[in-house]
Amino acid sequence: MTQTVFRSFGGLLLMVLCGLLNPVSAQQLSAAIRLNQIGFYPNAPKTAVILAEKSMSFEIKDAGTGKVVFKGKPAGPRTNQHSGKMSFIADFTGFKKSGKYVIEVPGLGRSAEFEIGEKIHREVAQAALKGFYYQRASIDLPEKFAGKWARPAGHPDDKILIHASAVSEGRPENSVISSPRGWYDAGDYNKYVVNSGITMGTLLSLYEDFPSYFENFNTNIPESNNGVPDLLDEVIWNLRWMLTMQDPADGGVYHKLTNPRFDGMVMPDAAKNPRYVVQKNTIATLDFVAVTAQSGRILKAFENKFPGLSDSCITAAVKGWEWAKKNPSVTYNQEEMNKKFDPDVVTGAYGDRSSSDEWIWAAAEMYALTSKTDYLKNISFETEKPLPLPTWSQVKTLGYYTIARFSEDLKIEKQFSQPIRQNIVKFSDDLLTDLEKQPYHTVMGKTAKDYSWGSSSVAANQGIALIYAFKLTNDRKYLLAALGNLDYLLGRNATGYSFLTGFGSKRVMHPHHRPSIADGIADPVPGLLSGGPNPAQQDKCTTYTSKIADESFTDDDCSYASNEIAINWNAPMVYLSAAIEALMEKK
Ligand code: 9MR
User: In this structure, what are the phi and psi dihedrals at residue 44, rounded to the nearest 5 degrees?
Assistant: First the structure.
């Protein structure tokens, strides 16, 4: 009894003391206040969203002293087009002092602590790139680089079987090739050329767009001190794998390196099922051409570090292009393949019927590499059509970005590059239309279509398009809208989650990601971007609490449709966060 009284008295004393030391903690955390949980640049917009039925004033308080440093009245209300919910926009852009703060809405509660400071997203960008290191196949991740997520190598991939669908001269069924390295695609352990295509294109473009920023961008990987930017070292890990996916006999490229069925929820080194390369096809080959052409171009400058690698890439690109020209309509149709060949393969299909966009991307990269207009023959750039956002199955915009990047150097006639530049700006203007009416004040989420499988990558890719528009026009409104989408990804959204593992006060903890599930460590592998809301809920998980487009998310590892991670989503996250850092540093 005495002990209990003493304990509760002690507890009370502790609470009072803490309250005195940190007066802001008196207010309850409120889930109705949504903001970028990492923080803000001193000289950029600062927005929080308050979910409420009526307008309430807000205060920014110093997190240490509890002193009110800024007061404001939020604008609104705005009505959410998906849920009908009302929100108000608390703008504290005028407050510019670096430090740690909370936002408080008397009567509602307070936010978790956030920071105002220069380079506020640098660690986010570094972690998102480091996420690729954690996805590496065929290599040990020692503690020195992987911290508590250290693990033995998985999938040596040095004895890969030729699937019946992939036989060619010199490579009969079940013969063995070596195809090590590369990144695991996602929460699963397979390696897919098509998805590697857009991922590599995005990361390589990031390097080409901001080369100097990466001179000093360390992610603590084994290659960190080799005199090559870590971004390129990371990309080369996957590039060397991709090069093994080309059939040396004819230049065609296998669709994927895969188990017949998905592995169980085990660590990489415990997954020992036989793996195959399957059917060569036009689209995988063209994606490969684009990546190797771009790599060949970039790596010319690193010839002394990687003797011969640039040349190997260029040779591979040319061979792939020739194969695609001879085989322009070989599509990968998993169902059809399974009818004809054994074993059946039921892993990610990445089946895509239309190759016109891959032709555009590959042609643009080959042309940028060689300046030979031959590569543009018979290619329609389709600039009369609206620009589509890049996805694994729609890559022509990656080609546009390259043309836009090099239009001066390539001396491409105006009539050719001009419409591409205009398209990028037009797309960005359309994104910006009605921004002032959006419930989270983001271009992300204007239409329910934005919430497709991997919607986080939609937000990130919109951000990239806006950054290109900014580079083309120098109009800061595009850059700030891109930053708004980064705010979305880090917490200013209808779920209240920060979608990057390891970051944010309300962060994703249970991604559909085999190592994170199997390693017995509470924290998931960091730096991985969760797919995000997806009202289609194909995984049929029972823990979703909403079917509304922008809320249809569950932080549950059963949810491969809303909470998986994937390399093609991480890459635009790296691009967006690093590009914003690079551009904010400049001004
Ligand atoms: O990102 C892909 C999405 O667009 C498709 O609708 C979905 C179903 O085919 O597949 C997604 O990609 C998955 C791939 O097939 C296998 N690895 C995990 C990928 C992310 O969920």
Answer: -140, 170
